[in-house]
Specification:
- 20% of the residues lie in helices and 39% in strands.
- Strand 2 and strand 3 form a beta hairpin.
- Helix 3 crosses helix 4.
- The longest helix has 29 residues.
- It is globular and about 55 Å long.
- The chain starts with a helix and ends with a strand.
Length: 359
């Protein structure tokens, strides 16, 4: 059976959402719906509909080409609108990102390279003044290294190099987290190169360990094999959301523990808060150490309340504990919604509360 006109038109993969197709084009692509007379004129009338359909396609292409020349921002609308499946959407939403989220929309990046017999595709990227997030498509079992000489790096056009951390592999969707880009990225897109020297198999943790070159023997350079050696170098351009540093509130002391906010950064719909807890009692330090060992999460209990009184969502969290000094260092990124006075509550029994004024 010959493909219909609609099938042939959609096979062209024009970068347009279905809502932009004119109704007459859709109707023209389904000639069976037309009430055409059974006469010799039928082929002629069908050809008129075909002519109109092709004219509509040409008009769409010409219009979009003209719009790209007259309004450069329109190019961004077409190129930066990601089309992701449910798995990808789930991975991104875990980081507070979504294709339709104001200020938290990842940029589509279709950059791919084959190396070591394995193809890696850079699908999307997001950057603000707090973090840089890259979404990769890799074979389901492979994960980039999180330390050592094979750790992935991100180098910008100015020569600055950042080291990245993989955030697990979900059905081949791989997240890489990097520190924020240089300040110039907030004014215009900058050129970046993602370098991945090798990857190891995360799904075969019970397999014999393979020592990776570059690590001293007996160190954590031993990973589940097999190790896929290649060198994936993916170049792209990305712009970052600007940010503003907010003044931290005064420290508070509760039950012998000093709570100090060391930094607050607001960028897009996110708020990054860093703080320390010093003078922890031995039982507190022990509890915190267990929490880190089991969950690698921020120490203690804490919540950020929006001006409406609702609890905000924690996007990412991290921390470390220094038992010798009984000091915990913590950081958390919250998804916020608008300006106002937020309340960061922490400590045993949520007895410590900081007010954070977000412009």
């Amino acid at each position: 059976m010959k493909p219909t006109l609609e099938e042939r038109l959609r096979a062209l993969e024009l970068p347009l959402p279905p809502s932009l197709y004119p109704q007459q084009l859709v109707a023209a692509a389904r000639p069976r719906v037309l009430q055409l007379p059974r006469s010799a004129s039928r082929p002629v009338r069908a050809s008129k509909w075909l002519t109109r359909a092709l004219a509509a396609v040409a008009l769409l292409v010409i219009s979009n080409f003209g719009a790209l020349q007259i309004w450069p921002s329109y190019r961004g609308v077409l190129a930066d609108t990601p089309v992701f499946g449910p798995v990808t959407m789930g991975v991104l939403s875990g980081l507070g990102l979504a294709p339709s989220a104001p200020g938290a929309t990842p940029t589509r990046l279709a950059v791919s390279q084959m190396s070591g017999g394995t193809r890696v595709t850079l699908r999307a990227g997001y950057a603000d003044a707090i973090r840089t997030v890259l979404l990769l498509k890799t074979p389901q079992a492979l994960v980039p290294f999180f330390s050592g000489p094979d750790q992935p790096t991100l180098t910008d056009q100015y020569g600055q190099t950042l080291k990245g951390l993989p955030d697990g592999n979900v059905s081949g969707e791989q997240i890489l987290l990097f520190p924020p880009l240089s300040a110039s990225a907030s004014t215009r897109p900058i050129s970046l190169t993602l370098s991945i020297p090798a990857m190891f198999s995360e799904s075969t943790k019970s397999a014999p360990l393979v020592h990776v070159a570059g690590y001293p023997a007996g160190t954590k350079g031993d990973y589940p094999g097999p190790v896929t050696i290649g060198h994936w170098s993916l170049s792209f351009r990305l712009r970052a959301m600007s940010g503003v540093s907010l003044p931290p509130p005064a420290m508070q002391v509760e039950a012998g523990t000093t709570y100090t906010i060391t930094g607050i950064m607001k960028s897009g719909p996110f708020l990054d808060v860093a703080w320390t807890e010093s003078g922890l009692a031995p039982t507190q330090a022990s509890t915190h150490a267990s929490s880190f060992k089991l969950a690698n999460a921020v120490l203690g209990d804490y919540e950020l309340y929006a001006p409406t009184g609702q609890v905000t969502t924690i996007v990412t969290q991290s921390g470390s504990l220094q038992p010798t000094s009984s000091t915990a260092t913590n950081e958390a990124i919250f998804a916020i919604n608008g300006a106002g006075t937020y309340r960061l509550v922490m400590g045993a029994g949520s007895s410590v509360a900081f007010e954070v004024h977000v412009p």
